[in-house]
Amino acid sequence: DLHSFPTRRSSDLQLGIVECMADEIADKAYELAVMSYEETDYGRLEDKCLKNKFASEFLKNELKGMKCVGIIEEDAEKSTWDVGVPRGMIVSVVPSTSPVSTTIYNTLISIKSGNAIVFSPNVRAKNSVACTLDTLIKIGEKCGLPEGVISYMTTVTKAGTVELMNHSSCGLILITGVPGILEEAYKTKKPVIYGGTGNGPAFIEKTANIGQAAKDIVESKSFDYGIVPSAEQSIVVESCIFDRVKSALIAEGCYFMTPEEADNLGKLFYNGDGMPNLEMIGKSPQILAKRAGFNIGEHIKLLIAEEKYVSIYNPYSKEKLGPVLSLYIEEDWRHACEKCIELLVTEKNGHTITVHSNDLEVIRQFALKKPDRKSTRLNSSHPAGS
Question: Among residues 354, 368, 361, 360, which one has the least CA distance to residue 385?
Answer without folding.
Answer: 360
